[in-house]
Amino acid sequence: MVNDNLEIKTICPDAEKSLFTIESTESDIQRETEAFAAVTSDQHNTLPRIKILGTGGTIASKGADSSQTAGYHVDLSIQELLESIPDISGVCQIEYEQLCNVDSKDINEEILLRIYKGISDSLQSFDGIVITHGTDTLAETAFFIESTIDFGDLPVVFVGSMRPSTSVSADGPMNLYQAICIAADSKSRGRGVLVSLNDQVSAGYYITKTNANSLDSFNVRQGYLGNFFNNEVHYYYPPVKPLGCHKFKLRLEEYMPTPRFPEVCIIYAHQSVDPELVDLVAKRYKGLVIATMGAGSLPKAVNERCLAQTIPIVYSKRSMDGMVPNVNLPHPLEEKTSNVIASGYLSPEKSRILLQLCLTKSYTIQEARNVFYGVYGG
To answer: Pfam families, from UniProt (predicted)?
Structure first.
């Protein structure tokens, strides 16, 4: 049957060698275009929606030249960072927001709560969240977020870099690309806060920065979950979150307009450490964390000063690995209730955050001790 809607034209005058093109009428072209657009739109709408929150850090920094890997400054917006990564239009839909643009050493409680609010406000509208962050205090922010937000199975991925964007072999673009892919991957659901760095997928709750310069800068003895290779995310274990992680429900209105948590100080113990430091801190702060010399060991005079205080004092450790168990805590006189708490596996900086959250909720010493004991072995 003849189709009057098609017109056949030769593109070569020699009939025996001629090639033919079939051209649709204008109405056919319009229908085909609309059909293709509908299919493309449907495919696009089924892609995960990912929210990217920018906070700054080395990943958003520039140096004076391509060989500079120190002394750089934060200079790039999250939009500029996204322009440096491979095309992700086939992976997910992207929206982004610049929460701040600072070196992570400058992240304070006001910025921490801004990150908290940015994540909380995005939970119901997106399938995954990525936060760009400086590596120096990334472990602290990740720990705080895991301890304060119940985000269900939604992947929340922190990402940073060790080299500025202007450096030869800058690691930021690939780290960010991988973080977005990890957040968009269905296998990432139900794993809590994740960290994407140096081709590794790690548990944000446990991650610790152990090298100030190397690309392989994070140690995650308790939380190395998988790796990223050739556009694929490979996990070693089924989805699971940190066991016994205590969730603190925060009411942002209680911290506005001036965000302020109870102040907790950290003392780094060493040979000949002055016991009077404990007294000085107790007069000024609501709590104290001590990075002890081993698994809770301190000079007798320091222990006595600690037990004489009324503020909660957490015994942590200055070593990277290991734990401080309850059995290594000093014992008070029988008529006095102990005010000391074992940190278990927690580092001093994470112990500080957890003690702050306990004090925010007005927990008793025993309640705080139970929180630390929940997963950390304290």
So the answer is: Asparaginase, Asparaginase_C
Q: What is the pLDDT of residues 202-260, one digit of tens each?
A: 999 988 888 888 788 887 777 899 999 999 999 999 999 888 889 999 988 877 777 88
Tokens representing 275? Answer: 């016991």
* CA–CA dist 198, 207 (Å, integer): 13
Using the structure block, give the residue that is written with the tokens 């080395």.
Answer: 58
Q: Average pLDDT in the 132-153 region? A: 95
Catalytic site residue 148?
A: no
Is the pLDDT assigned to residue 63 strictly greater than 80? no
- Please tell me the predicted confidence (pLDDT) of residue 163: 82
Residue ranges of the binding site:
104, 135-136
Output the DSSP codes for 281-303.
HHHH-SEEEEEESSSS---HHHH
> Which helix H or strand E contains 33, and what residues bound it?
helix 26-46
pLDDT at 335: 60
DSSP letter at 167 equals S
The pTM for the full model equals 0.85
Candidate list 21, 25, 46, 58, residue with the active-site label: 58
Residue type, 190: G
Residue position matching structure tokens 């999250």: 78
What is the SS3 string spanning 327-377? HHCCCCCCCCCCCEEECECCCHHHHHHHHHHHHHCCCCHHHHHHHHHHHHC
Identify the residue with better confidence: 118 or 165.
118
Among candidates 157, 155, 145, 232, which has minimal Cα distance to 186? 155
Place of tokens 């990075």: 291
Catalytic residue among 55, 132, 135, 141: 135
Annotated binding site for substrate: 104, 135-136
| Residues 122, 42 contacting (CB under 8 angstroms) | no
The yes-or-no answer on residue 40 being catalytic is no
